[in-house]
Write the structure tokens for this entry.
Amino acid sequence: MNKFAFWNEWDSSFKLTFKILLSVFLIFIISFLAIEWGGLSPFYYWKLTGYIENLSFPVFSNHSEFIESTINTDLPLIFQKVFGGSKILPSAYTYVYLGLLYICLIGCLTISTYLEKFWYYIGVGLWILLVVLSGIGNVGFFDIYNQTAIIIVLLLFIPASYYFNVINENIGMGLRFFTFTGLMALVFCLIYFGSTYETPLLFLARFSYLPAILICVAFILIIGHEIIYAILSLTTPYAKSASNNTTHFIILSTAYLLNLIVLYLYRVHYLDWDIYYLNEFVLIACSSVLGIWGIKSRENLYARFLPHYPYTAFLYLGLGLVTFITLAYQSFHGNDAFIESMRNIILYSHIGFGLMFFLYIIFNFITQLQQNLPVHQFAYVEDNFPYISSRIAGLIVVAALFFRSHFSSLYLGMAGYYNGLGDLNLSLENESVAKYYYQESVSKNTYNHHGNYQLAQQENEPLKRLSYLKNSIKSNPTSFAYASLGKEFENSSRFFDALFTYQDGLKEFPNNWALQNNLALLYNKTNVIDSALYYLENSTPGSWKQAVIDANQKAVASMHGWEVKTDKTQNLERFDLQSNTLAYQLISHDTTNLYFITQPPSIALNLFTYSYLKNLGLYCYQNKLSEFLQLIDPFLDAPDNAAFRKELTIVKALNLYQNGQIAQAIEIIYQLKEVYEDESGKWNALLGKWCLELDAPLLASKYLEAARESYYPNVSADLAHAYQKLENPSLALFLLSKESIANDSINPAQASQWSSLFEAMQQNSVQWRSYSFDKEQRMLAQAEAAGADQRLLFEHLGLDNPFYEEGVLAAAKYFKETDEEMAYQILREAITVNEYSEVLIKTYIDHCLATGLIDFAEDTLIKLIDILPEEDFLAYELAFEAKKENAQTQLDHDW
């Protein structure tokens, strides 16, 4: 006979059923351990809160080696902190649990119909108790509730049970099971269609917590001594041995029991040694599996009222399935109060029943152990100390530990019950009812994590939310609670409390990515950069979490100018990481090719997509790329983006300028001047520096003088350059000496810079960077080559850059022959932007006279007063009058 795979000796149908049940049993054991240890519960999840810190970034400066004004814009850096949230899990999980739970209960009811008469009535009584506790009376059907509903349900099951047990014992197990299953399906239908509850079966699942927890407790108590029995089996072979069985059994059992006692003392906070403690869930998993053979070894104790083959074996697996299905379900839903309650019962059971079974073996079989006999084969044939007495004694020890804990397991179990009802009502959007149940949960166990955490999620008052979160980390903390509590402290400006919370959380959950991330950003705020980067560099959670860490790392490095490695294999599908990578490349002057361009999926921008677009624009501006201009306009036109429009418009203007579309860039800055008058100094300084670079010093001086009147920093240096280009060095030197004297006492270092510029300008050795007209020159050459796109090229030459006078004149000449209106538009827009260009104004006047627009020509003539010397202006005025008279004569003749 195979003592290990004893089921192989069974009838094929029972053997197959046992194997299926055993497989499901093992699956749920593994599932529960995986959920509990692997953090696989989806109930808690990570939420992100992002914020932007702007870094002042120069976008137009460095035209010479001397002091000058700088045009800065905000370089947005995205920082993301992590905190905990909780999900409303799909109802499907609860329906599956309900179905599995009642299938197992039906299986146990089926087995009970094979009990002998007295025990059968005990089984029926237990079934009645389970139905009463199941909540069927609360849910009701067709306005029938409480005792009446319970009686109706019992009248369905008890006659059928009695029939199988007394009247027709020959009916097979399968038919009995499916009969009860059909009756239960009928009850579910009555409840589903007849209950006044919104989702009655979900409520039934939550109310069924009570019978489920009773079965869990019963099963845990049944298997409490299995590990001691396993030690006995290992140390006493199947035949008489020469080894010292007594010593082996006593040493191993004592070591095991001492470990349990140490674990108990640790749980009650009597000691806190830095050692590895046994885990209660490993104990129940091992004991449950060992119990499959242990229950068979005790067959002589119960065979007279229910044989092991196959009934007790099926009953054991049924009870075990209820236990682990319930444990897995509650762990999956993050119900730590229930899990803690069961953990205590597991520990009490293994201490009480394990110790008493050890003493039972010693008192009854010490002689046989000394004789090295296979004691495990007759361990349940008691002599001096009856087995039932050891069970009663074990139960007394369990009760003593239970009472010693002030009924904590009971209150934890009740807290778990209310947590479940709170979750259910929250899923049904009954928030006030859910809050009531969570408060009831906390009233039963003040520090249960689930209840406090859920109340914190619902609470709007910061002090109460803080109190709930503090309580949530005192008993069964999660990293989610630590992260949320730290964030709450930060929101209350309690820096050190937040710091200590994150540090305590990392002691409890070493290397947790969220806590490391938040702690790093807290260090970043206090400029402890090495610690900030240390925590970010040592956090490698993978997946989307890694992208958050990498984005924050790039932001910290960009803010403080630190170097970090750029990994091209990073997940760059996220806008936060893309944005901060662009910022890092801008700060570090990294000119490597842009290997990602992503268009935001929604026209309505958020902080992330706005930051990405702005940094993309600055990157394209710095590296002379056109991608930004190709995608930005729809986002600027969207009404929802009003909050971001100003900053993105500035970047668009910069890119237009860099792309040679000078007229559009200047028009945009003019629009910004009208809307944001308080920043007129900045706008005028930018226009002045552009004009200075475009070799239009008179127009530059106009803008720069306005900027100086607005006290824009260091703009006098640029104005001095403009004066020098206008061949007025004395005014330039006077301006520089004035700035040097003004800074001499308050800022000696800057005064020295002004003096250096003064001396260089005296020697006429200042080299100012100029705009390159290479692009326009190439375009003019292509246009004059008379290709298929000649008209388009001349349009660009005429309209894009009015400071490239040769191109404007060539375009005007081209269109004068084919489209006089277009020629007029080109010249008119050119002198509107490049308003002090002598050649453009004269050409415009000549065009107006030639086309009969004499009044327009007269109005424009006055512009030359500010440009030409007096003698030259008078001479031109005389010539103009002659041309005007000829034009008027020609016009009169045409009429």
